[in-house]
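Duplicate of #3305? Posting structure anyway:
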């Protein structure tokens, strides 16, 4: 029994054509036995001396990013200190609002991740791009609870600009990687 190389159908040993697809089997008696051609010995691949690896100098762009977070924290401390000097009791309220806002931001990000699991976490510098709008809304609400409305009117634009700035930094950092 021999099998057709085209369709795999079993045929009798003396068949000249496949009974299913018509493939013509080669005539074994007419072909002289073929001898394999002598193979040349394999040529080894040339070995090159290994180049020494040079360590890259640290990127100059990462240094400002590393210094940016402490600079923002220092600026917040200076602003809170100035507010405490001119308007006693306000700086502690703002500090409480910032801490609560941080925890609320983490909570909102957890909710966003549970509703949108395919959404990759775009979090850098502690504020996420996905919840920046929610953070700004909650931040305004917390400030209105702790502070008089006139001070909220002064702080909200600055805080919104800071949130937009940090969100922009996150997007730029994502585009860079």
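Output from current build:
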């Amino acid at each position: 029994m021999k099998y057709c190389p085209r369709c795999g159908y079993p045929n009798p040993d003396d068949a000249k054509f496949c009974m299913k697809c018509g493939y013509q089997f080669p005539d074994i008696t007419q072909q002289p036995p073929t001898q394999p051609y002598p193979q040349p010995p394999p040529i080894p691949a040339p070995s090159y001396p290994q180049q020494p690896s040079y360590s890259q100098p640290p990127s100059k762009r990462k240094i400002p990013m590393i210094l940016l977070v402490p600079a923002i924290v220092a600026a917040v401390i200076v602003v809170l200190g100035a507010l405490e000097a001119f308007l006693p009791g306000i700086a502690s309220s703002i500090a409480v609002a910032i801490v609560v806002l941080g925890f609320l931001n983490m909570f909102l990000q957890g909710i966003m991740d549970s509703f949108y699991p395919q959404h990759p976490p775009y979090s850098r510098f502690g504020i996420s791009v996905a919840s920046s709008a929610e953070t700004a809304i909650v931040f305004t609400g917390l400030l209105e609870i702790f502070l008089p409305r006139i001070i909220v009117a002064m702080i909200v634009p600055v805080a919104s600009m800071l949130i937009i700035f940090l969100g922009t930094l996150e997007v730029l950092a994502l585009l860079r990687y």
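Confirmed duplicate; merging threads. The longest strand covers residues 2-3. Helices lie at 62-86, 90-115, 132-146, 149-176.
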